[in-house]
Each structure stands twice: as C-alpha cells, then as structure tokens.
Write a structure and sequence with these properties.
Elements (H helix, E strand, L loop, with lengths): L1 E2 L4 E4 L5 E2 L3 H12 L4 E8 L3 E2 L1 H9 L3 E8 L2 H6 L10 E4 L2 H8 L1 H6 L3
Parallel strand pairs: 2-4, 3-5, 4-6, 6-7
Antiparallel strand pairs: 1-2
Length: 113
Amino acid sequence: MSFESESNRIIWAPGVTMTGDVRGTIGAVDAVSGAGRRPLLVHIGSVKRITREARELLIEDTCSSKTAVLGMDQVSKVMTAFAYTSATPTQFFTDEAEAVRWLLEHVAEAQLP
C-alpha cells in the first residue's frame, strides 16, 4: 500500500486469494488516511479468488471516498462486479490513467473557486 499526494494505492500480489484478511488492509487504509477519507486505487492484477467474507467486507467498507478498481481484463471485472454495490462510489478500469482521472475528479472540482 502507498500513500500518495491525493490518494491511496493498494497493489494485490498476483495469484493471491482475498479473504477476511482484507480487514487488515482496510485498517491500514484508515490509518494512512488520517481524519478524512481519501480516494483509493486498488490494483487487483491477477488475483486468484475473492472469498464471500472478503466481498462482504469490501462492500460494507467506507475507508475511502471513492474507489477505482484496476484489473487486467474482463475476468477481473467479473470477479469484482460486487463492488458496484459498495457503500462508496466504485468503478472498474483496465487503464490506469483513466482510473486515476476518474478517481481524482472530485479533487479538481473541490479546488475550483
């Protein structure tokens, strides 16, 4: 996980199975975000599987103001389709530049006079 100037970033290892252990990742995002929620870019790469418990935790999670999920292909999109019912705005992307642009839209709008 990394803390960037306007957002946080998580990169899941290839072949990993996301389980209830995502609770620790959510806690880490909360910790680096401080008092306010920040946009989050999640690289799911070639995650092997996402368990039901992990899905439920991610749907209920509000550690970010919005989440861009960056995957490699349509298989990644299908695996993360549950994210569209997330408690915060969430979109799937295969292009990192598009994901970052969408993720940071509100930052640019908030800086307008």
